[in-house]
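EI: anyone free to look at a 294-residue chain?
SC: sure, send it
EI:
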Amino acid sequence: VHFARLLEAEGERLSNVVLMGMGEPLHNYEASLAAIRRLNDERGLAIGQRHITLSTVGLVPQMRRFADEGLQVGLAISLHAATDEERSKLLPANRRWPLAALLEAARYYVERTGRRVTFEWALIAGENDTVAQAETLGKLLGGLKCHVNLIPLNPTGGYAGQPSDPARVETFQAVLRAYYVGSTVRVRRGIDIQAGCGQLKAEVAARRRRARLRVSQNALQRSSRPSTASCAGCRAVTLPRRGISPSTRKNSGALSRGWGSSRSSQTARAWTRLQPRTRPRPPTDPPPLMLRQL
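SC: here you go
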């Protein structure tokens, strides 16, 4: 909505929306559907249903449910591999809903809506951009009302894969044409601000790793500080002295130096460890538990 207002201020209009890159939309089905209806509502942004696309990794039951909603919203499926073995390596969801079930759900969507399905294919150099992969894909999608978006891989931290060079992309596209499967090479956008496909998750994961590293370093620094026994600030508040009888004060002083009975010494050390290191104002009375043990 904010972006739509910015465009409106410049005399332009937001005309297309893709639910992609913020997590799996079909994992949050009700919220995604509500967002689509608001985008389409005349009192909202009034964006036509055919200008809205939902992208999914391939959650078969939700895909079938979405097909029954009676909407004209586009459906894009992240495919990236044409065999179950290869796709399961890239997308764990394929282990639960393999390609046969996925394509059956895609056909059901086409039958219910009359719209073609879009398949997303991130081209990874030497991995899924070969002629053999293109032929397998062509055979897999042959006869299905669909279109393939070919997207050279975005550079992503934590993954060594590289984008395909233009020559290999052209060859891949030519093979698909031979199987009468249409395709479009998509321009990569948002790479400079880590907004391309896969980059946002990698950036969030990197931030979490840095945060965990800082916590570990802080813990290491704290553990290397002087122990409680040698900390003057902690000894100063080990046991309060005001309001205690002379005999108790004498015993408490002995305890703070580690003397006295074993049980009392353990209690005194436990009380010492509970004290903050910032020299707070000592309490006016000793802990009741301490007095009972003394």
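EI: The first strand starts at residue 17 and ends at 19.
SC: 👍
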